[in-house]
Fold this sequence. Notes:
Elements: H1 3-22, E1 60-61, E2 68-69, E3 79-83, E4 100-105, E5 111-117, E6 125-127, H2 134-142, E7 146-149, H3 154-162, E8 167-169, E9 179-181, H4 183-188, E10 195-198, H5 199-205, E11 224-225, E12 234-235, E13 238-242, E14 247-254, E15 259-266, E16 269-272, E17 274-275, E18 280-281, E19 283-284, E20 286-292, E21 294-296, E22 305-307, E23 311-319, E24 322-330, E25 338-340, E26 349-350, E27 354-360, E28 366-367
Parallel strand pairs: 3-7, 4-27, 7-8, 11-26, 20-27
Antiparallel strand pairs: 1-2, 3-5, 4-5, 6-10, 9-10, 12-24, 13-14, 13-28, 14-15, 15-16, 15-19, 17-18, 20-23, 21-22, 23-24, 24-25
Helix pairs in contact: 2-3
Amino acid sequence: MTVKRMGALLLAAALSAALTSCGKPAEDPGSGSGGEISSQEPSVSVIAPIDPEPEPVYPYHNPLTGEGLEEDISGQRPFAVMLNNLSKALPQLGVSQADVIYEIVAEGGITRMLAVFQDIEGVGDLGSVRSARDYYVSLACGHDAIYVHAGGSPQAYDALQGWGMSYIDFVNGPYGDMCWRDPGRRKTAGLEHSLLTSSEKMLDQLPKRIEREHDQDFQVGWSFSKEAPAGDQQHVTWLTVPFSHYKTGHFTYNSDSGLYMVEQHINGKDIPYVDGSTGQEVGFRNVLVLYTDVAQINGDSAGRMKVRTTGNGEGLLLRDGMLYEITWQRDSRNDCLSFLDQSGAPVSLGVGTSYINLVDTSAEVSWG
């Protein structure tokens, strides 16, 4: 074999080895095998973005909160329950499930709440239940509500009977099987502050003479939106509402939940607003302050109050961490309150529950 032939064979062998080496799969350079790194580009997996779940669309809405519902409850009459707010009578029961809470001063500087439930089924225990005042009867009348109370002032009874109200009176009515005296509250707070009821007892034993449905033409008329209203607004995180020397309300915005948490300054003590049925603090989507005329009734030996609940006046709306100056209007006791912006157009509440404070025009409400 010639040297030239031998060289050609060696060259061919070298080329063959090189080609065979290039055809092998790349080995992991970190495996310690000494293999070469592949020149092929790594494959890339493309993950398609996941579309967010669409918000459910409901066929019906709660007329007091704007919350979506699968069942139409707008035609049924709400229950409006008078609640004790003395410090020794706290905590109240069932308030976390109320759609609307009204608070107004009563005699001696104390306040009471009117808790309105569009659908009271399943709420459970409620109380403690206290006596009626005519201005609360007026507000309940505007909701065409079934009014629940335990006794009342002479003015309240005049209103209940003169206005044709549907009411459940646990003191002067045949409703003893709907309520009971809680032994613990009776011991610590006294007999008059111990009366409780429940949604089950009221629904099971509601007299047939009390209509459960509204007339066809009844409308609450409140509007709701998830978007903040247009117009002038202030960024506000807290609100203080003085009712009297005895009671001041504090509302603090929780940006995580979008709710205003309530604390009561009662008789020198700061008390979180808690539902005794759950042990949890109660928050509200909307807080309103309505300025009106509040004064003591001339010659009333008990110092009872008169409160204007019709006509119009100035007000404040807090929602979404913002404060809006509004006006309120109510033509008659058969109408629900209307809330208007500075141009006179209806202002939208946030979707959810509302806490409505009625105070005198002289009240020094503050915020920041």
